[in-house]
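User: I've been trying to design a sequence by hand for this structure and keep getting stuck. Would you show me what you'd pick, starting by listing the structure so we're on the same page?

Assistant: Good idea, let's start from the same input. This is the structure you sent:
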C-alpha cells in the first residue's frame, strides 16, 4: 500500500475526567501525546498527525517535530474528530486508509500499528482492529475489558461477530481482549460517522457495534499483548516505569 494512501490520525483532547490534561502528562521528559506520535511514526505506514481541539496539545506536538490539526471541541467521539481532521488534511481525497491511534497508548508497539492494515488485502473488509488472547483470569469477567467474539478469517485474524463487556463466548476456549486501535477505508469512515448511534452501541457503550449493526465488516489481527491505556494516575506511573528504558 503506497505511503501516500495511508494517514495515521491521533485524536487528543484535554478534557479527560479521571486524568485531566492527560495528553500533556510528562513521561520521562516527553508529553504522553509525543510518545504516541513517535510510535506511530516508527510504524512507517504513512503520514502522522494529531487531531486536537487544544492549542496546548498542538503546540507540544509541533515543538517536537510533529503535525497537529485543529478540530472542533464538540465532537462526541474520536472517530468524529479524525473525520474532521481528514477533511482538513486531505480535501482532494487522496488518502484511502485512515488509522486511528488513541492518544493514551504510549506503549503501543509500532509493529501492531503496522499489523492493523493487514486485513485490507481483502476488499470485503471495511474496518480493521486488533485483539489479544486474554491470559489473566480476572479479565474474563471484568466489564472494562471489552471482548471480541469472532470467527477465523485466516492466520492470526478474526472476523468480528460481536463486541461485549460480558464474559463471552461461553464455555472453554480462548477469549479475546479487544484493542481500540482502528483502520478504516475512507468510504467506511465516511459512512460510519454519518450513522446514528445504534441500539446495541448504546446498551454496551461500544461505538464499534454501530458498524456491525449497519452490516459493515470488521476484522481483527491477533497480536501478542495489550498496550497500556493511561486513564488514571496509577496508569501514568506504570507507563513511566515501562518506558524508562526508552531511547526517546
Amino acid at each position: 500500500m503506497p505511503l501516500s494512501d495511508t494517514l495515521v490520525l491521533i485524536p487528543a483532547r484535554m478534557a479527560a475526567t479521571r486524568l485531566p490534561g492527560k495528553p500533556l502528562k510528562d513521561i520521562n521528559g516527553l508529553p504522553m501525546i509525543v510518545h504516541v506520535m513517535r510510535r506511530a511514526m516508527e510504524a512507517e505506514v504513512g503520514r502522522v498527525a494529531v487531531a486536537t481541539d487544544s492549542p496546548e496539545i498542538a503546540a507540544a506536538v509541533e515543538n517536537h517535530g510533529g503535525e497537529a490539526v485543529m478540530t472542533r471541541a464538540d465532537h462526541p467521539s474520536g472517530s468524529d474528530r479524525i473525520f474532521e481532521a481528514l477533511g482538513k488534511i486531505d480535501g482532494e481525497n487522496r488518502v484511502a486508509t485512515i488509522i486511528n491511534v488513541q492518544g493514551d497508548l504510549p506503549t503501543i508497539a509500532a509493529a501492531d500499528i503496522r499489523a492493523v492494515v493487514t486485513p485490507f488485502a481483502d476488499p470485503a473488509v471495511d474496518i480493521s482492529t486488533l485483539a489479544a488472547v486474554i491470559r489473566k483470569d480476572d479479565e474474563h469477567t471484568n466489564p472494562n475489558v471489552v471482548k471480541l467474539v469472532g470467527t477465523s478469517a485466516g492466520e492470526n485474524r478474526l472476523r468480528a461477530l460481536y463486541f461485549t463487556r460480558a464474559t463471552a463466548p461461553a464455555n472453554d476456549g480462548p477469549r479475546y481482549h479487544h484493542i481500540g486501535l482502528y483502520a478504516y477505508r475512507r468510504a467506511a469512515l465516511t459512512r460510519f460517522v454519518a450513522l446514528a448511534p445504534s441500539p446495541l452501541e448504546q446498551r454496551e457503550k461500544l461505538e464499534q457495534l454501530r458498524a456491525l449493526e449497519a452490516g459493515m465488516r470488521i476484522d481483527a489481527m491477533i497480536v501478542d499483548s495489550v498496550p497500556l491505556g493511561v486513564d488514571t494516575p496509577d496508569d501514568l506511573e506504570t507507563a513511566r516505569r515501562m518506558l524508562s528504558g526508552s531511547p526517546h
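That's my pick for every position. To get oriented when you compare it with your attempt: The radius of gyration is 17 Å. DSSP finds eight helices and eleven strands in the chain.
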